[in-house]
Amino acid sequence: MRILFITATRLGDAVISTGLLERLRHTYPDARFTIACGPVAAGLFQRMPGLDQIIVMTKRRYDLHWFHLWRQCVFTRWDLIVDLRGSGTSFFLRSRRRRIMRGGRRAGSRLAHVGQLFDLVPPPMPTVWMSTEDVAKARTVLGRQPVIAFGPTANWSGKVWPADHFIALWDALSKARPDIRLAVFYGPGETERRMAAPLLAIPGVVNAGGCFTLAETAAMLSLCTLFVGNDSGLMHLAAAAGTLTLGLFGPSKASEYAPGGRHAEWIAAPGPEGEAPIAGLRTEAVADRILGMLSVIAAEPKP
After folding, report:
1. Is residue 34 helix, strand or coil?
2. Confidence of residue 297 (pLDDT cuts 50, 70, 90)
3. Is 282 exposed, middle or buried (0-12, 13-18, 19+ CB in 10 A)?
4. Which residues contact 265 (CB under 8 A, 6 or more apart)?
5. Residue 3 phi/psi, 5° resolution?
6. Of 1, 27, 106, 263, whose CB has the highest number of CB atoms within 10 Å?
7. Whole-model pTM?
8. Which DSSP letter does residue 148 get?
9. Which domains are seen in the chain, by residue range?
10. Helix axes 233-240, 11-27, angle to 10 degrees
11. Residue % of the chain over a pLDDT of 70
12. Helix (H) or strand (E) holding 181
């Protein structure tokens, strides 16, 4: 069985789609998957069982990236095409079945929107795929001491909690929990590194960004005690990895983009949803929420 799965360009949206992909993988255990996605998200799928190939869709003028995708897929007879981009490309490919997600404004979360494509209520939670080598490398980077992860970057400046707020947060957390160590996560490129730079100057910090694959990053996040960060792809990746996650929201809508995971929560700046400046989110409120989350986890019985 051959399945073509067309998913997002951005990392966060691609992570959201992984739960549906994993559900399909278990529903059709003999299927071979072709994943079409943007270059930033491609590494997310490299460890997925049942993967045939990843088609990286780099945006081109006049939407020629869709023609490029069609050209690579047109000679295959597909059993199922899932198009989360709503492109309509699948209508020009041979397939027994098609599921195309329509755009437009919808009530509820992006995660629920993806699940509705197959009438899945509740929607399947995002997941990550990694190897034992990824986990071993992650352990080498992080060591054995309990680690709290910060994600101080985002793809839009309006979603970025100020660096001095993160620094004040670490000061409060390190006093309350002197046993923990800080790891700072950020994406590749100079822009991301500049946003993370003030936190990388904190003594003893673990630099966990910039040069790792997404599978390695997911493995590192899975070993962290907690992740706190802006509404970003890293936030969604941390939640998908099963890490205790607190997403920070300002002008982006938590009702749509909240992290999806068994241990994922969010906190928003005071004010109307989607309009409140994220700088209005008080450090004390975030610290209190984190310490409360940690105390709940500590009180849970060990398996």
Report:
1. strand
2. confident
3. middle
4. 245, 246, 247, 259, 289, 293
5. -125, 130
6. 263
7. 0.95
8. E
9. 2-116 (3.40.50.2000), 132-299 (3.40.50.2000)
10. 30
11. 96
12. strand 181-184
